[in-house]
Amino acid sequence: MLIKKLIVFIEKWGLVLLVLCLLTVFGFTVEEGMKPQADAEAISVWTSILDTLTSDSEKAEGWAKVMHLLFKVTLAWAGVRVYMSTAGLKWDNFAARYLVRSHVIIIAGKSEENSHSNTGRQFSNSAGLEVDKSALAIELALSMATSRPVVLNLKSVDESNRTKLWEAGVTLLTEDMAMAAVLAATGAQRASMLIAMRDHYGDNIALTRSAFSHSMDNTELECKCLIEPLSVKRTFRLEDYFENDSLPRIRIFNEAELIARRIMQNHPPDLPVARSNEAGVHLVLVGLGSVGQSILLQLARLGHYRSGKQPKVTVIDRNVKQQWREMLDACPQLASLVQVETQELKIEEITEEDVDRWLFDERPVTMAYVCTKDEIANLRFARLLVNRLQARDPKSDLIMPQVVALDPPGGCVLSDYSVNGLHNGCFHVFSLVPSDLQKQETSKNAGNHLISEMDDARARQFHEGYCAKDRVECEQQPGRQPAPFNRPWTELPETARNANRMTADHFEVKMRAVDYCIIPKQALADSLVLLPDQLELLARMEHDRWWADRILDGWTHNAVRDNKRKFHPNLVPYEELTEPIKQLDRDSVLQMIEILDNEGLAIARTC
Description:
Elements: H1 2-34, H2 45-53, H3 63-75, H4 77-98, E1 104-109, H5 112-117, H6 119-129, H7 134-144, E2 150-153, H8 159-167, E3 171-173, H9 179-185, E4 193-198, H10 201-211, E5 222-226, H11 230-235, E6 250-253, H12 255-266, E7 282-286, H13 290-302, E8 312-317, H14 320-330, E9 339-344, H15 352-359, E10 367-370, H16 375-390, E11 402-407, H17 413-420, E12 427-431, H18 436-441, H19 457-476, H20 494-513, E13 516-520, H21 532-552, E14 556-557, E15 567-568, H22 579-598, E16 601-605
Parallel strand pairs: 1-2, 1-4, 2-3, 4-5, 5-6, 7-8, 7-10, 8-9, 10-11, 11-12, 14-15
Antiparallel strand pairs: 13-16
Helix pairs in contact: 1-2, 1-3, 1-4, 12-13, 15-16, 19-20, 19-22, 20-21, 21-22
């Protein structure tokens, strides 16, 4: 680490120091030349400067000799700098292979060896299944390096990013190697986590399997495996590629789904109407690409609010009708969970009249997400929306929605507008690779990277509590069989794990519904408890959320439960449930409060 910091310092400041030294010595040389000699008179400063510049290095003496030496060193600096860069990479290769321990490995980019040697893979790539995640890999490395050692394997890294990575303490490998070689070079035998995010999901599966091989002999290693694009992730089953004993240590992820989850956590669409019994959510969604589709699916799962009204979504895109039909083909039940109105428009062609029509809808807009890949188009629509919001009568009781725009990697326009624009705080930017301006605004959350969204701690605790309660009931009722999902977390199918994750994610939605928030326990004088009517409201919201999650997974109602055929008797409105089943929903809410208590958190009235 010390060696690498020294290399970075020399690269960054070496030339500056050489030039300063050269100018200083040049001044001493000129001053020395102006002194009167024994057989000659003193010369002027301009004559001394001219003599210094035209002096012969072989005949130079005193300060002039030092000046010529520094000049030669400065000219040679370009070669030295290249060498320093090479030396730094060699040191990183050595450190990763032999010295770093309990670290995170991030492997990204395209493997030339694997893509050219496999004709089947070439066909898949040409079908559009290859996605570049280099920018995301760099962002993750920089974010995670604040708390733990990180080794990044990425074939191509430009000089500015390489310097940033080194300054953050990231160990960088830029060689293209085969699977086994890259795992050995990154020290996988001693690592605690592997994030496989190469351009093709097949490479990531292969990396994960190789990391779990007996030759690696690392039973503590956890793997995060990127599955892109979204169409592949929807039907992906871990069980098809990995043995059962490996499943507990693997988590698959998709960038668009993580973005959707974070946007809805940071800027919830229900915020202006969370405590209302009448008002519903109305989301304006610009762009129905992978991020927009993920937001719609996340809203279908979590959009169950106090009012009981389905969220309404106005979706705007140039090809939105076809995209929406394809979504319904993949998820037929989506239409029963969200009210979608499509507007087939190019974002550049949207007018003020269009915006006013959406803003002054019979159900007022509560939030707007702008999710295209074009930052200039995102900026135009966001400013148009903000301007129309600010043109409203300030005395009006209409809802003032927030506008959130997605800033593509490398973007700078939206972040500048977020920090310096005249939007009165109603505009926010979401970026995978934060600009310097954004980092200044969000430095307190430096460790809150996208991979942190995959922490299953709460979901696991929730599942363990469910299993413990079911075991008690089995003891109290002799002959009763354990519930189908009363088994260790490691043996749950991914859909069941996701159901627990959604339960954890929905808790803050429930707290907003009763005007509560989550704060550190030490900041609260007296612990609050839910009143009976509040608990009943939240139990109904929990049942609606569970119901939506089940039907999106293909379950249907039947009087007799059948897990293989996905039949369930409880896919009915909350009022039609039996009292013991209602109690399960109440217990779910109360259990989440217990989990928060274990984490040193508590519920409190919103300030």
